[in-house]
Recover the amino acids of this structure.
């Protein structure tokens, strides 16, 4: 995952529900996390979570991929409890 | 007056969103597959339930009454940094104790459904002394450190089954992904 989100497939949920609920998440942030994740973990059901700290937001960003397609992205409060502010 | 509840469901990803339409910028996990969202002032405004039909339909249809889903890590597997969990309840199982010490998405998800009152509870077994309605029929419960630990949906089958059943055929398909 070294080319960010350019050209990545997106699941309908990402462009519709995710953009309604979490409009503050910028594509640039998602791209940054995918290009240089701080942590990656497998989720049940074959999904993968990518985490990275977004300095200007003061929060961690969680990006969820399903089979390489963008599914969801949101600021993750639990990241602060897990890793603090890097 | 409580805000109206918006129910958004994506059958492709089996993702259910319960939302009041207000800003829901920041997420925190109750347990694996259940995330609550709040705004910058800490006001809870939404919930996302992943694999919603697979998790909930068996309970909302009365086939099952309670369940624990997920595999809590043993505490020795956690990073040394992960020691800031909320206070322990008075009585918990060994597995729950392990879950308390680690990441919230590794906590067991306890699902309870009471058919007579049509009420659904999703919780992680930790204390839930405080509650706030995010919308009509949806209440988030949290502890004194503002850690969200539970969720209650009233009129659950009435509200959720019509949308979740659209995915039942897909969820029951032999080609569907297992949890």
């Amino acid at each position: 995952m070294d080319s960010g989100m350019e050209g990545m497939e997106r699941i309908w949920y990402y462009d519709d529900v995710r953009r309604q609920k979490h409009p503050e998440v910028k594509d640039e942030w998602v791209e940054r996390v995918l290009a240089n994740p701080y942590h990656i973990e497998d989720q049940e059901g074959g999904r993968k979570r990518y985490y990275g700290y977004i300095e200007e937001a003061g929060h961690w960003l969680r990006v969820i991929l399903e089979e390489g397609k963008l599914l969801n992205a949101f600021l993750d409060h639990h990241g602060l409890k897990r890793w603090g502010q890097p | 007056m409580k805000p109206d509840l918006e129910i958004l469901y994506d059958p492709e990803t089996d993702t259910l969103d319960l939302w009041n339409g207000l800003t829901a910028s920041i997420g925190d996990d109750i347990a694996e597959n259940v995330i609550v969202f709040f705004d910058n002032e800490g006001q809870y405004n939404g919930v996302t339930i992943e694999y919603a039909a697979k998790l909930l339909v068996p309970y909302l249809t009365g086939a099952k009454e309670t369940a624990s889903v997920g595999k809590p890590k043993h505490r020795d597997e956690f990073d040394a940094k992960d020691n800031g969990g909320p206070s322990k309840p008075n009585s918990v199982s060994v597995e729950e104790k392990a879950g308390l010490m680690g990441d919230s998405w590794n906590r067991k998800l306890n699902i309870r459904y009471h058919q007579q009152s049509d009420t659904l509870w999703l919780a992680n077994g930790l204390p839930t002394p405080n509650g706030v309605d995010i919308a009509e029929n949806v209440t988030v419960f949290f502890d004194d450190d503002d850690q969200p630990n539970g969720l209650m949906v009233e009129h659950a089958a009435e509200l959720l089954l019509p949308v979740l059943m659209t995915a039942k055929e897909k969820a029951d398909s032999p080609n569907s992904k297992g949890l």
